[in-house]
Amino acid sequence: MAEVMDWDSAYRGEGEFEGEPPWNIGEPQPELAALWRDGRFRSEVLDAGCGHAELSLALAADGYTVTGVDISPTAMAAASAAAAERGLSEKASFVAADITALSGFDGRFSTVVDSTLFHSLPVESRAGYLESVHRAARPGAGFFVLVFAKGAFPADTEQGPNEVSEIELREAVSPYWTIDDIRPALIHTNVPKLPGMPPPPLDMLDDRGHLRMQAFLLSAHKEP
């Protein structure tokens, strides 16, 4: 990233975007929802960098016990309120914390899900993050990462995510987790409302009007 984003300002609606941040699409990312529906997730689940936590809430409604962690207190307050409103507070809990130095959860989770967090971290924070969530995982736990691929954003983007190549992703993750698969995927976002930005081509939009952007989906596990 050219600069570190003020995540709490973004969730308060005071950032550079008009209205909801582009990543808040009001539902789980379709790539991860497909894994959930295929039975790839096991309770208890850590939703790393969960934001407004639509994935956490969907999993909790399906009977999973989920802990969402995000650096934004505003996002965590909104997620907790949504859980209470939906009667899910016993299944879904939320913690405002730095995921790169997470403590107090050693060996707890059977699944760790990263829904577009990895590319939001400074490159120098990746090792701390991967070590942190690995420590929080149980032996045999699954790890799933949905991350922007190189080329998802124009090369002249001044402030954007730290996109990865497949090799870069593999080299970052493999010292901590055993990688099972990395495949091309899509991240769905709201169309950003930025001054002077032209509308995207229709073939880049899904049937709900979300922008589809190139990504990777990594599946890995912690050795027993």
Automatic annotation (TrEMBL):
Domain Methyltransferase: 45-140
GO biological process, alphabetically ordered: methylation
Keywords, ordered alphabetically: Methyltransferase, S-adenosyl-L-methionine, Transferase
UniProt-listed SUPFAM superfamilies: S-adenosyl-L-methionine-dependent methyltransferases
GO terms assigned for molecular function: methyltransferase activity
Signal sequence, start to end: none
Keyword S-adenosyl-L-methionine: yes
InterPro entries for this protein: Methyltransf_25, SAM-dependent_MTases_sf
Pfam families: Methyltransf_25
Protein name: Methyltransferase family protein
Source organism: Mycolicibacterium gilvum (strain DSM 45189 / LMG 24558 / Spyr1)
